[in-house]
Queue: 4 jobs
Job 1
Amino acid sequence: MALISPAFAGFVLAALAVYYALPGRGQQWWLLACSYLFCLTWGWTSALVLVGVTVVDFAIAVRLRPSERGARWLLRVGVTCNILALVAFRHAGPWSAMTGSAGPWAAIGLSFYALQGISYLIDVQRGDLPAERDPVAFALYMAYFPKLLAGPIERARTFLPDLACARDVDDAVIARSVTLIVIGLVRKIVIADTLAALIPPSAFTTPALSSALAVCIVTYAFALYNDFAGYTSLVRGVSGLFGIELSPNFVTPFFARNFTEFWSRWHITLSHWLRDYIYLPLSRALLRRNLSRYNVANIVLPPLVSMLVCGAWHGPAWNMLVWGGLHGTYLAGERLLRLGRAAPPPQQRTAGRQAVGMAVVFTLAVFAAIPFRMDLGVSLAFLRGLLTWRGWGAPDPRVVLLLAVGLSLDWTQYRAGDELVFLRWSRLARASLLAAAVAALLLVPYDGRTPFVYQGF
Amino acid sequence: MIQAPGSACSPRRRTFKLTTGIGARTAGLALGFLAAALIAAEIIARIPAVRVRLLVPGLGSSHRQFEIEMARLEDFVAEHGTLDCVFVGSSVVGSGLDPEVFRVAHAGRSGRDIRCFNLGIFGVGASAEAAIADVVRRRYHPALLIYMVNLMDLGQAADRSTAAMIASVPWVRYQRGEFTIAGWLADHSAAYREYLAYRNWTTLTYWDDLRDARAIEIRTRADGFVSAFEAGRWTDGNVGRAVVCRVDALAAARFSEAALHGLDTICGFHADGVRVVLVEAPAPRVRLTCSRLARLHYRQFVDLVARRAAAAGVPFWRTLARGPISNEGWADSAHLNATGAAAFSRWLGEKVAASMSS
C-alpha cells in the first residue's frame, strides 16, 4: 500500500476512527494490528521477517543483564541476527543482486527497523534502558506503520516510554499534523517528483550523450532531499494524528555551514544512530590509547568509519562506499582544519562567511551525490562530462521555478528555526498558503507510481 | 499537546478532544480562497481574448490531434449552427478529404450547399473511430456520416494502440452515456479543459510536445482538414510498392475483432437515422501490382467490409478499381497530398450528390 494513495488515506482514517474509541491498552493492540496489516500489504515476506526480527530482539533483550559476563556474547548474537537479516532480506541486498529484482525475499523497511533493534539491544546491554517486558509495546516499537517503510529510526528509550503515556489529540495537534502532511505532500508531489521527472534519464546512464549535467545533479540533489524530507514530514503528520510524535529527519540541510552541521540536519535519526553506536564508541576506544587532542587517528577514523558504514547501509556497492567515504573525508578534513585554532561556531561568523560555508557545503554535498546516484563507471563518465562546456547548460525554467519554491519553503523554516512556522502566521496568511498548496497539488499530475526513494534502501 | 519524548506520563484518559476548531476555520477559509480562484479561472478561461492566447482546450486524452479536431468541430457547429455531414477515419481522411472541395463539387452537381467537417484522427483504428463517430452522432446529430475505411483501420496494431487512448477517455465515456466526474468537468468547465491542455507541464518532453501541438493547430483548418503534406513528394517506385504490399499483407493477416466490432458499430448508426456511407480509402495504383498473397489479403479486406456494410444496409463505395487518383496525388504510400485530396474530394462530392438525388 503506497503512502500517497486513496487506499492509505482510507486505511488511516479507519484506523483513527477505531483508535480514538479504544482505551489505552486496546489502542496499542489496535495499532499493532494495523501495522502488521499495513506490512502484509507489502508481502508475506515483509511480515514474516518483521516478526522474526522482533521476536529475536525481544527474547534476547529480556535475557540481557548488563552486569553479567555473558551479556556481551548475547548482545553480539543479537546484533549479528539483525545484520544477517539485513543482508539476507533487505530490498537491495544480495538476494536482489542474485535474482535481478527485489523479488519475494525483499522485506520492506528492514534497513530501518533492524537499526532500531540493534540500538535497543545495545542500550539494554549498556544499562541505559530496561528490557521491555510488554511484547505488544516492543512489537509496536518495531512495526509502527507510519515509520515502517523508511523510518524515522526511533530509539526505544524515547519511543517506548511515550507509548505508555496518555495521548492527546486536540486542535493544536491536528493543526500541526495536517501542516506536516501538507508540507510532505508538497515536497514529494510538487517538488521532488516533478524535479525528478525533469531530469533526462540518459544523464545518469549515458552522461556522454547528455548535456547540462551540472543542472541534472543539482536537480537530483534537491529531488532526493525533498523526496525523503517529504516522506518524513508526511509520516510524522500521520503519526501525530495518533498522538505519537516521531523524530524529525531533516532541518533545512542545504543551509548548513559546515559538514558537522550538515549531518545534524540531514537524515538526522540515521546520523545520530551512527554517532551513538559507531562514532562515539570508536572515538572513546581511540582516546583510551591516546588522549592527545592531536590524536590524528581519533580525528580521522571515527567520521570516516561512520560514513563508510553509512554508505554500506545504503547499499552493498562500491559507489555507495565512495559516497560515504567522501562525506567521511569532508567531516575528517573539517576537524583537521579546525585543529589547533579556536573557530567560532557557524552562527557567530559574519553573514558573508556563513554564505561561503553554505555554498561550499552545498557544492561538495552535490558532488558526493554523483556516486550516490550512479555506479562508479558512470560517475567517472559524468565527471568527465562536467569538465566540458556541454556539462554546463542552462536549466529548464520549470526546474528554476521548482527550486525556487523548494528553497523558499526551506528558507522560511530556516529563518524562523521552526518547521511549523506557518502555524504562527495570521489566519489569512495560513489559509492563503494552504489554498496555494492544495492548488499546486491539484495542478501537478500524480500517477502514484513513483515510490519514495528511501523505500528502496 | 503531544508528549515530549521521554517526558513524564499523565494518567490515561480520552485521546481525541476537539475544542476550539481553529484548524477548521483556517481550512474553511482556504476552501473559500480555492473556490474563488476556481471561479476566477473559469471566468478568465471563457473570455474570448484570453482563449485565443491559450492552447486549444484538452479533453483528457493523450491524443492531442483528436482534441484539436474536437475543438475545431465545436467551433464549426457554433459558427454554422448545424453539421450536415462528417468524415470519419484515420489520417488518411484527415489529409485526404477536403470539405471545401467536397462542398463545391456537391453543390455543382446537386445545387445544394452541404457543410461537412473532416474528423480524421491520426493513427486510429476502427474501435476508436467508432467511439469518435458515436460522440459526434450524439452531440451534433449529423445527417450524413462518411467513414473512409482502409485496411489498416481493421488491423490489430493500429486498433489496439489507439482504442484505449480514445475510447477510455472520461469525456468520451461521458458523451456516450456513462457518467464520470472528469467527463462532466471536461464537458462543462472551460478552466478544466485548459488545465487538461496544459496538464503535462511536468514531463520532460513538454516543450517538444507543445511545439508539435502548436504545429498541428496551425495545420488544422476550421473545417478539420489537415494540410499535412506537400504535393508530389512520394514517388511510385519500388520502395513505395514494397511498403504498400507489406502493410497489406501484415494488416490483413491479423484483423482485430474489436476493430470489426467498431466497423459494425459505425454501420449500426444507419439504423439510428444517420445516413452512413462507407468509402474504401484510395490507394496507390501499385497496390494492383502486389504479390498474389498481398492482393488476396486486400481482397479479403474488401469482401469483409462489403459483407458487413451490406448486412447493415449501408453502401460501400469502392475507389481502387476506378483509380481516381493519379500517381502525382500521393504524399506517401497511404496519404494523399493536396492535389490528390482535391481530386478525391471532388469525385466523392459528386458521387454523394448523385447518390442523394437518386
Job 2
Amino acid sequence: MKRTLPFIIIIVVLALALGSAWYLTRAIPGSPTLGSQSPANSATSPASTAQRPPAMQGVPGAEPPHVLGPAAAPAKLEEFGDFECPPCGLFHPILKQMKEEFGDQLQVTFREYPLVPAHQHALAAASAAEAAGLQGRFWEMHDLIYEHQNDWKKEFDVRPIFEGYAKQIGLDIQRYQQDVSSDAVSQRIFMDGKRGHSMGVKGTPTVFLNGREVPFESLAPEKLRVVLQNELRNPEK
Amino acid sequence: MKKLYALAALVSLFGLADALYLTIEHVTGQSVRCTIVSGCSEVLSSRYAVFAGVPLAMIGAAAYFSVFSLATLAAFGYRIARALLVPLVATMFLVTIWLIYLQAFVIEQFCQYCLLSAAITFVLSVILVLIYGLHRSQKSV
C-alpha cells in the first residue's frame, strides 16, 4: 500500500486539477471548451438563439448617452470601455469597421468604464472625452484618444496632450478646461459606471448587443460580424 | 527531510492552483480583457505570455504538477524523484527571474497572479536549498 499511495495521491490531484479546469471553462458563459463549436459557428446555429440569455436592462447610465446610428436600428450595441485599456484600443477599429459595414442597421453606444486605479490615466481620458461631449464632439475626442493610446498612456501628465486633442478638434479651450474637472463630467462617468455595475461589467471592453453580453472572444472582426448578422436575422427582443 | 519534501508538495499545490487559474483565464480569453486588477491584461496579453503556441500559464501548471508529483514521490522515499526535483525547480527559478525581468523592464506592468507564482517558486527553491543543506550535513556526519 505504501508503494502505491503516492501514485494514488498524484492521480487524485491530477483528476481534481483537470476536473476543476473543465468545470471552470464550462462555467464562464460563452467560453470555448475543448471540442466545442467556435463562438462564430455557435452564433449562427439555430439552437444558440433558443438558448440566448435574457436581455439585461441595468440602471440608466449618463443621459443623453453617446450614440452613433439611428434609434430604430435593429442591432443596438453598447460598449463599456476604458481609454487606457489596450484591448479597448484594439477593439476601437473593429467597431468602426462594423459600423461602416452595417450602417444604419447598427447603433453604437459608448459608456465610460475607467478602471481606476489599475489604469492611472483612464479617468483623465474619460473626463477629456466627456468634456468634449459637452461641446458636441465626443466621438472626435473618443477616436483621437483611442488612436493615440500608445502616445499618452506612459506619459506622466496627460492633461496637455488631451488639451492638444481638444484644440485639434476645434473645442473652445477655456470651456474645455472648466468642463474637464466639472461635476457634470464626473457625474456622467459615475452614472455610466453605475450602469456597468448593474449589468455585471467586470472588465473592459464589455459589449452588449440588444442587452445581451457578447462573449469577449467573439469581439474579433470575423466573429463579431457573424454575431451581428445573426442578431439581424433573429431580432429577438 | 521527508517533511520538507511534503512541504514542497503542499506549496506546489498553491502554484498549481494559481497557474491553473491563469491558464483558464488565457484559454477563455478573459485574461485579455482589462480588469480592476492592475497589469494582468497587459502581461497576459503580451507576446511573452505564449511560448511555442502554448500559454506560459499552462506550462507553469504542468511544471507545478511535476514538482508536486516528484516531491510526493520523494517524500515516500523514491530517490530518482529527489534527483529530478532539483533541476526542475532550478529551471523554474531561472525562468521566474526572466519573467520578472520581462514584467519590470519590457512590459513595464506587474500581474499579481504572476508575482504570486514567482513567490511560490522562490519558496520551493528555498525548501530545496534547505533539503540540500540537510543532505550535505547528514553526509558529512
Job 3
Amino acid sequence: MSRRGIEILLVIALAMPCLASDREFKSVVSAIETEYNTKHMRIPMLKLATFGLHVAGTPAPSDMKLAVFEHLDLPPDASTGEIERKINSAMGGGWHPLVRVKARDEGQFTLIYANTDEKKMKMMVIVLQPDNATVVQVTLKESDVKKWIKDPKILGDNDRDNEKDKD
Amino acid sequence: MRRILIMAALCMAAATTAAAQTQDWSAALAAKLESKASKTVDVNLDQSMLKFASSFLDQKDPDQAEAKRIVANMQGIYVHNFEFDKEGQYTEEDLAMLRAPLKEPVWSRIVNVKSKEEGQNVEVYFKKEGNKFIGLVVIATDEKSLTFVNIMGPIDPEDLAKLGGEFGIPDVEIGTDTKDKSKNKDKSKDKTTDKDDKDKSKDKTKDKDDDSKGDEL
C-alpha cells in the first residue's frame, strides 16, 4: 500500500469516533423528522457561537450539536411510545439511557442519554413538546459533570428554571 | 477459541441477567403507573456510569468522598418516580406488585415507617447473600407520589442515609436528624415503625429504627 493510502486510512480511523457520535445524532434527528413529517431548522454559525463563548470565558460545552423542530402541532396527550422506540434503536452502543422525564400536563417528553470515555462525557438531550422539539448533543467538561452528579434530574426537569423565572 | 466463546457467552448471559434484574419488577408496573401519573422521572445509573460519575467526586469534600467510597462496588442505581394529580391514583395492588419479588429469605424488610398525618410511607428492603447485603430497594410513597429506588451491589445499611441527595436518590433520613426532636415528638404518635429483620442487620439498624419513630422522612 502506498504511503498516501496509509495516511488516508489513518485519517479515517482517527475520524471514526467523531463520525460515530455524529451518526447517532443524525439518526435521532432523522427519526423525529420521519415520525412527525417535519424538517429541522438550521442554526447558522452555532460552532462560531460556541467558540465565542469559550473565548469570552463563559462556561460552555466543548462541542455542541443542535437541531430544532418547530410547528409540530402535536396533541398534548400524543403517544410517545413509537418515537421512544425509534430513538432507542437509533442510539448505538456506548450510549446509556440516563434520565427519562414525561410530564403529561405540559405534554413534554425528555430523554437524556450519556456516552462516557476517560475524562469527558457526551450527553444527548431530546425534548419533545406539543409545538416543538429539540435535540442537543454536548460534550461536557469536568465542572459541568460535577454539577450534574449532584442532581441528575436538573437536566431533564425545567420546573426549577420556571420557578426562578416566576420570582 | 472454544474457551473464549464459552467465556463470552457466560459474560453475555450474566449481563442479560443483570439487565433483567434491574427492570423485572419496575417495568411491568411502570406503564400502568405512567398512564395515570402527571409526571414520571426515571434515572438510570449503571455500573459504567457510576464509575465515571464517582471519578468526578471530590475526595477532599467529606460527603463526596463518602459517596465515592459507597458507590465504588455498586452495580447500578435506578430511581423511578411517579407524581400524580390527585390521591388514589396508585393502589395497594400496585404496591403489592412492587413488593412481590422482595420476599424472604433473599430480601428482608428492615425499615417500614408509616406516617398517618403526612400520609408518607417508607419501606426499605435489603437483599442478603450470606452475611452481606448485596442490594437495596426503597419504596417511598405519599398521597400523590410513588418513588421506587433500586440499588444493586454491596451496601451497608448505615450508608443509605449518606447516599440520600446524591445520584438522584431521595433524601431519606432515617434516625439521623436530631436537630428538632421536640417538634417531632407529637408527630411520632401517628407513626408506626416495624422491624422485620431477624439477623445481624437488626442489631446494625436498631438504633436507627428506634430513632426514626420521631423523625421526618
Job 4
Amino acid sequence: MLPKLVKFVLLTRFSKPLLGLVAFFLIYDTVIRGVIGGSGSSNFSGGFSYYAIGSSIFFIVMSLLFGGLFILKSDRDYLLTLPLRRRDLSVSLFIAQFVGSGITILFLYGFYVAGAGSLEDILVLVANLVLLACLVTSLGVISNILQIWQRVALAILLGLWCLSTAFGFEFTPVSSFTGQLVYGTIILFTVTAIAVPVSLRELAYLELGSIRSLLRSTSTEYKKNMSFSGKGPIRAIYSYHLSFLELMGRVNIGGSTSYRTARVKTSTILIISIVAAAVYVYLTGFSALSGMPLTVASEPFRPAVFVIPVFMGVIILVLMSQGTFSNERGWLAFTAMDPATYIRHLLLSRVISALAIIGPFGVADLILALLGQMTALYSALVLLVTVPSASILATYLVARIGAVQQVKEEGMMPGQFDLRQFLVILPTYFVIGLIIVSEIILTAAIVIAAALTVIATLLMIVPSVWRGIAYRLTQRGFV
Amino acid sequence: MTKSYGKTVALDDVSFSIPCGESYALLGSNGAGKSTTLRLLVGLLKPDTGTIKIDGHEPFSPEAKSTLGYLPEDATPYRTLSVRENLEYIAALRGVKDVAGATDKFLDELTLREYERAKVGKLSRGNMQKLSIALALVHNPKIVLLDEPLNYLDIPTQERVFKMLKSLDSTMIVSTHIMSIATRLTEKVLMIARGKIVWNGTIDTLKGMEVGDEPIESVVARLMTGAS
C-alpha cells in the first residue's frame, strides 16, 4: 500500500515533467558535477563554508517563517477521510514534503561534497546534507503548528546558532561545513532526531492538527480595520498596500505551499529596519566612524556589506514576484478600473513597501561609503535601485509566463506544481547573478542599475503590457 | 465574437445584443461557454475576433467599468481583508462618493453586520457569497452580470437577494443552471451549447414549448441536446 500511496501523493502534487527535472538536477549536481567535475573547493575553508552556512541559515529560517504543507484541498475532503494507515499516510506526505522542499539542499550543495577530501569525510558530509534536508523538511511542517511569534523566535534562535559557526563556534548543526565533522554531525543528528518525529506525527494527524487549526478559527476578527472612506481609487490602492505587508514565501521547488499574511504595519517594519540598519552601520563601520583603522572586532562583519544586498534581493524578489498577484481578485480589481492603471499602482505600492525593508540598509550603505568604505556604495546602488527595478521586472516575468497561482485557500497548495513554477525561479537567479556582479565592479553596478531601471520604467509606462497580464492571469484561471 | 483557449474553442462566432433595461438568463450545459461570455463582456478576457460594446464603450474603458457589476461563479473576495474593508476598498476603487454609506447599506441588507470585522478567509461559504453579491452591486451598476448568484445561500437569504435584484433598475444577465432562478429574475433566455447560441427568446415562449406536463427544464434540456 505504501508505494502506491507515495506514488499517488507525489503525482497529485508534482507534475511528471517537474519530477523528472528534479531527478535530473539531483543526479547532475550530486553525481556528475561532484564526482566527474569536482567542486574545486578547498575542503572546509573559504567559499564552501560561507556558502553552506549562509544557505543553511536561509533554508532553516525560510522554512520556519514561510514553510507550508504540501496538502491539497482535495486531501482534506477525500484523502484524509480514507481508512489509511496513519504511518503510511505520514511517510507519504513526508516524502512529498522532502521532494518539494528539502531536496533543494542536495542539489544546491551536493557537488561541493566531492571536494571534502577523504572518502570518510565525503560520506560524513553526505549524511550531513541528508540530515539537513530532513531538518528543513520537518521545520516546514512544524511551522504550521506554531504561532507567528513562536516561528519568528525559533527562526532567530536557530539562525543565530548556525551563524555562530562563522565565528568559530564548533557546537552547531552546521559546523560540519567548517570541518567540525564529529561535533557538527552529532548536533545535527540530535536536532533532526527531534524534528523529524514531531513532523511525522503532525503529518499523520493533519485533520486533528494543522487543518483543524486552520478551520477552527472561524471567528477571527481584526481589532482594527483599515478605512477607505473618503479616499479616491488610487489613494485606496496605496492605503491598502502600504498599511501592512502580505508575506508569501517560496522555499520549495514549485511555488508557495501556503499564503500567510501578517498585519504588520509598514511603519513598524520601517522602524525595525532602521534599527537593524543602525546596528549594521555600527558593526561594519564603527572603526571608520572613529577615524581609526579597522579593528579586529569589526572585521568579521565586513562580509555583511556584500551578503546583505544578495540576501535582501532574494527576499524582495521572492515576495514581489510570487506575492504581488497571488491574493489579487481580478473580478473585483480589474473590473473596477482599467487593469493597467490598477496593476501599475499596485506594483509601485509594493515597491515602496519593499523599500521600507531594504531602504534603511541602502541609506546605511551610503553612510558607510561617505565614511570611506567604497564597496558599500555598490551595495547602496543595488539596494536602492537594482533590487526595486528588478522586482518589477521579476513580477512581470512571473505573471507573463503564467506561473502565478491564485490563492483560494490559505495554508494549502493552490494546485499541482508544474515545470512552469520551477522555472520561474530562474529570473531570480539571474538577478542574483547581476547583484553579485554589481557588488564587485562599480561600472557594472551602474550599468546594471541603469539598464534595469530603464526596462522597468518602459514596462511601467506601457498600459497594454499590464492589460495583457490581466488577460493572461484570467486565462490561467485567475478570477 | 470568437474565443479559444489553445485548441479549445470556447465561443464560436457568437453575436447578440441586450437592450437596456432587459434581463436575460444565460443558459447552457457545463463548459458551454457561459462564464467565458461573461468574462469577455466584463473585460477580463479579450475576444480573438469580434468586438464588444458596453453601452457603446469598449469593455476596459472607464465608462464601461463604471456601468458594470460582475459576480463570477464561486467568487472569493480579498481573503485577508475584513468584510467591511472589502466593501470599502472596492467602493473606493469604483469611485463611490459615500463609501461608508454604501458599505453600511449592504452590511444591513445582506445581514453581514455581525461579520463586519471578520477576516473573509474565515467566513462560511454562504457569508462569502453574500459579501460577493454586495461587492458586485456596491456601486449601483446599470448593468449586472451574475454567474450562479444564489449558490451557497440559505432560503431566507435567497429571497432577500431576489428582492434586491428585482428592485434594481439594471440591465441583467444571469448565468444559471437553475430554471426557477431564471424564471424569477429574467424575462428572456440566451441559450449556449458548445460555444454557439442555439436559442434566443422569452421565458414565456420557452414555457409554451412544454409538451403536456413536461417541466421547463426538460424543454431546455431538449433544446441543448438538440443543438449538440
